[in-house]
Design brief:
binds adenosine-5'-diphosphate; globular; Nucleotidyltransferase, domain 5; alpha+beta; 499 residues; 16 helices; seven-stranded mixed β-sheet; six-stranded mixed β-sheet
Length: 499
């Protein structure tokens, strides 16, 4: 086995950092993982320690490579995938961050986004970036650091500082500070990258008052990003692939044809449809984003982002102490025939697509004297189906394609009740692949492509295997009755909230 080439995928997520070793036939050989802390210094602020992100990455890579026999010599390439939008500024000489990483969930720039929206800039920004004004994206986070941390703006203007999302920061460290680059999917989440012209947009840089000197070079998803510093692994290893987590999952799920959809259920839920070679702005406040770019050819996707999915289950476990393990939610949900008219809208950090109401907060409605824990748990799992249906209707209209099936992945798809309800609510088959680590798999595919382990992207489709398929079972009238109840719950929440 030691002579066979392997691919090392780094999956740097919001709550953990993983290193996964894949064979050249895309089987998982080994996994190492480390939990990553989130810090909440003020209400609505979410930060992480960039140095911990880098140290954890190095640690899990060493652990996975040195686990049994050393695999370092066999690694043909490294692929990186990452939590998107999270913003880091660091000193180009020392590598020291000037401020903690501002995490994608951070809402400190809510007001700034509202002001820009009120000034009427949003249509221009959407036409160029495919995005909306929301604190979620990097631009207002970068501007916040430049404006609030003493001396940072002048250092940035002098070219002393580098900005990067987590992929870019890791690449910089992996290459010993030699390469400051990112890929189109990560660049596209900054609000500064024009995804139609495929370059940093001078007008947007002016709008957000961000100096171009801090920006990385933008490359294809499969590209020669650089070699690792020999000090790290004893030899230089090519870094051949890079993509934001949701784009990597789209690749891992082999959604290479227009109309194919993947939906990932982790902390949040992100559904992406491949829409082919033409940029189409959304008519439903979804996002248009690069699916991937290979050999300079961009394929676009429509994306629906829901901020809270599995996090609602975590909340029921940790705050309401309804159960000890997330997996126990399945038996509880199945212990009752229905949710007893309870609806759970898990808008803990505002409502994402297609509503985009950052100021709204969550709600459990329809409580009566005979409501039990089981009903609330069931409603939390059903919410995943309703939220996805909200998205899918909009995605299909925007993308101009009817999705035949939906390929799912992420921690929550271990829950069979959730997957069945999803199929019932979407009225579509829901497919679970044999390897549900779709994100890391996507990074591995990109890296393998660059070093010639695969002929082309399509060739990797041969290795996709389905583990389970859930087909719709409920009657049309029941499906629509349940969904109408969700719509009513969401509308009452939107009306009740001023933001
Ligand atoms: P992330 O990559 O965003 O950290 P994961 O894909 O690892 O998330 O998924 C973890 C999430 O899935 C957690 O929020 C957890 O509550 C939820 N989860 C895991 N297993 C189950 C299960 N069997 N039933 C319901 N939720 C689950």
């Amino acid at each position: 086995m030691n002579n066979q080439p392997v691919i090392l995928a780094i999956d740097q997520g919001t709550t953990s950092t993983r290193a996964i070793l894949f064979s050249a036939t895309l089987e998982i050989l080994a996994v190492q993982q480390k939990e990553l802390k989130l810090h909440y210094p003020h209400k609505g602020w979410v930060e992480q320690n960039p140095e911990a992100i880098w140290q954890d990455t190095l640690e899990v890579c060493h652990a996975v490579l040195e686990h049994n026999v050393s695999m370092v010599g066999s690694v043909a390439a490294i692929g990186i995938t990452n939590q998107r939008e999270t913003t880091i500024l660091w000193d180009r000489k020392t590598g020291k961050p000037v401020y903690p990483a501002i995490v994608w969930q951070d809402r400190r720039t809510d007001i700034g986004c509202e002001q820009l929206k009120a000034q009427g800039y949003e249509p221009m920004v959407t036409a160029r970036t495919g995005l909306l004004f929301d604190p979620y994206f990097s631009a207002t986070k970068i501007a916040w650091i430049l404006d609030n941390i003493e001396g940072v703006r002048s250092r940035a203007m002098r070219g002393e500082l580098a900005f990067g999302t987590v992929d870019c920061y890791l690449l910089w460290h992996l290459t010993g500070g030699k390469v400051h680059a990112t890929d189109v999917t990560n660049a596209a989440r900054t609000l500064l990258f024009n995804i139609v012209e495929q370059k940093w947009d001078a007008d947007l840089l002016t709008l957000f008052d961000i100096p171009e000197a801090i920006l990385p070079e933008v490359r294809d998803n499969a590209a020669r990003f650089g070699m690792t510093d020999r000090v790290l692994f004893g030899r230089g290893i090519p870094i051949g692939g890079m993509a934001g987590d949701q784009h990597a999952a789209l690749i891992g799920q082999r959604c290479f044809r227009p109309g194919m959809v993947k939906s990932t259920y982790g902390t949040g839920c992100f559904a992406l449809m491949n829409i082919g070679l033409d940029f189409k702005p959304s008519q439903h406040r979804l996002l248009t984003t690069p699916a991937y770019r290979l050999n300079g050819k961009m394929v676009y996707a429509i994306e629906g982002s829901i901020f809270i999915a599995g996090a609602a289950i975590q909340w029921l476990r940790d705050e309401l102490e309804f159960f000890q393990e997330a997996a126990a939610s399945e038996a509880l949900a199945l212990s009752v025939p229905d949710s007893n008219e309870v609806y759970f809208v898990p808008a803990f950090t505002g409502l994402g697509a297609p509503y985009w109401r950052p100021g709204v907060r969550g709600m459990i409605s329809g409580l009566s004297r005979d409501t039990t824990r089981a009903h609330i748990v069931r409603a939390a799992l059903e919410a995943q189906g309703y939220q996805t249906r909200d998205l899918m209707e909009a995605i299909e209209e925007d993308g101009g394609h009817h999705a035949e099936t939906i390929r799912v992945d992420g921690g929550l798809v271990a829950n069979k009740f959730m997957c069945q309800f999803l199929a019932d609510m979407l009225n579509k088959p829901v497919e679970v692949p044999r390897i549900t680590e779709a994100t890391a798999l996507g990074a591995a595919i990109l890296a393998g492509l660059t070093v010639g382990l695969f002929v082309d992207l399509e060739a990797t489709g041969d290795y996709w295997q389905r583990d389970k398929i859930y087909t719709p079972t409920i009657a049309e009238t029941e499906r629509e009755r349940l969904y109408a109840g969700w719509k009513t719950a969401v509308q009452s929440l939107l009306h009740a909230s001023r933001n």
